[in-house]
Amino acid sequence: MAMREQLAAAEAILFVAGEPLELARLADALETEAADAQVLIDELQRHYDETQSGLCILRIDGKVQICSRPAYAAEVRAALEVKKNAPLSPAAFEVLAVVAYHQPVTKGYVEQVRGVDCNHVMNSLCQKSLIEECGRMDLPGRPLLYRTTDTFLRCFCMASLDELPALPQHLRKQIDENEEEGDAAC
């Protein structure tokens, strides 16, 4: 298959997929190597940029997706009559921060860090697909573990959790002290 045909096929696959697609899966569908699929994705992004297309390539944790450019969000929302989601509460941002920086975590850990019940907030974040259950701890009661999702990365315009900003030193020290106290209590 010629490069132009592979490029068109990659674009069609990403368009129809609608969700982020693993690069390896795209390469398999195109019967090519992952490195070649990456070149196709880079070329597709270059084409979108050069033509000032309303589309762009979103890269999320080793996956790729075609999406509309953020600059056109208002127009897309108006055309689709999509109501703007209610903004997250400060409590929701706090819970997301704890989960993002310390995942996987239990609800109990989040509550210990915040000092208040987090059941409602965590359920709300699960419904919004910003966090998800990812297993259970091997402790009495087998508490659920939570982590952030690809939706979290997409909403905060990050390709991976490595892009989270570094915690300020005073917070890092306080977290380390809290974890030591928790270990001593066990």
Order of helix and strand elements from N to C terminus: HEHHEEHHHHEEHH
- Apparent shape: elongated
Q: Structural class given helices, strands, pairing?
A: alpha+beta
Oligomer: single chain
Helix % is: 40-55%
What's the quick description here?
The protein is α+β, with helices and mostly antiparallel strands. The protein is 54% helix and 13% strand.
Account of the 3D structure:
There is one protein chain. By secondary structure, this protein is α+β, with helices and mostly antiparallel strands. Helix content is 54%, strand content 13%. The chain has helices at 3-17, 23-30, 34-50, 73-80, 90-102, 107-114, 119-127, 150-155, 169-185; strands at 21-22, 55-60, 63-68, 131-136, 144-148. The strands form two sheets. It has a three-stranded antiparallel beta sheet. A two-stranded antiparallel sheet has the order 4-5. The longest helix has 17 residues, at 34-50. The protein is elongated, with a radius of gyration of 20 Å. The protein starts with a helix and ends with a helix.
Spell out the key features of this protein.
186 residues, alpha+beta, Arc Repressor Mutant, subunit A, 2 domains, two-stranded antiparallel ribbon, 9 helices, 5 strands
